[in-house]
UniProtKB/TrEMBL annotation:
It comes from the Bacteria. Gene3D superfamilies: ABC-type transport auxiliary lipoprotein component. Residues 1-20 form the signal peptide. The lineage of its organism: Bacteria, Pseudomonadati, Pseudomonadota, Gammaproteobacteria, Oceanospirillales. This is Penicillin-binding protein activator LpoB. Keywords: Signal. InterPro entries: LpoB. The keyword Kinase does not apply. It comes from Billgrantia gudaonensis.
């Protein structure tokens, strides 16, 4: 009888020590920094990359209108299990908001990002659908530009601390010529205790 009471008391004590969940405002978050990449790092890397791309003039179409951009592969070469789409989505959103580029979801390295692009075209010649509203042949727009890149991580000892360096490397390629129109590298460097983990 005494052992269950001790266990129950221990659990109650641990529960009392737990912190209460709270909201964090991403725009004003000056909370603890981890050695791993977090949403603030993705936000800053995306913003700096897009600013660099727009300032370079690489996405200014000399014929007027907007280029069609496709996202190629962004390789994760870090010790973390990163979803590179988090970075890519922020870049795409900022580029779309700039009004200088549109992105396609009809093609991608691993197939269409939005499979409905092709699936909706299987409705042609179906007696169940009003053919006036079905997508016609030859309406999908091929991409002009491709965005590819890599996220690298390097760990170094600095005195009694460790320094974790992340490099977000991006390239914008003209698909007609295969030439890189723009390339940039954004660095995220963190220094902290050797006891901190970066994965």
């Amino acid at each position: 009888m005494r052992l269950p009471l001790i266990l129950l008391a221990s659990l109650a004590l641990l529960a009392g020590c737990a912190t209460t969940p709270r909201y964090v405002d991403p725009a004003n978050d000056d909370g603890p920094v981890s050695m791993a990449l977090d949403y603030r790092d993705f936000e800053n890397a995306a913003r700096r990359s897009v600013d660099s791309m727009l300032e370079s003039g690489a996405v200014d179409n000399p014929n007027g209108g907007r280029y069609v951009l496709v996202v190629s592969r962004i390789v994760n070469d870090t010790m973390q299990r990163l979803d590179t789409d988090q970075l890519v989505k922020k870049i795409r959103v900022d580029l779309l908001r700039s009004g200088r580029v549109v992105t396609t979801t009809a093609v991608g390295i691993d197939g269409a990002e939005d499979e409905m692009n092709m699936l909706s075209r299987t409705l042609r010649d179906s007696d169940e659908f009003d053919q006036r509203g079905v997508q016609k042949k030859g309406t999908l727009q091929a991409p002009d530009l491709s965005l590819s890149g890599k996220i690298l991580q390097r760990n170094r000892k600095v005195g009694r601390e460790q320094q974790v360096e992340y490099y977000v490397q991006l390239s914008l390629t003209d698909l007609a010529t295969g030439l890189a129109l723009w390339e940039d590298e954004t660095q995220v460097i963190k220094r902290g205790s050797n006891a901190s983990v970066s994965w």
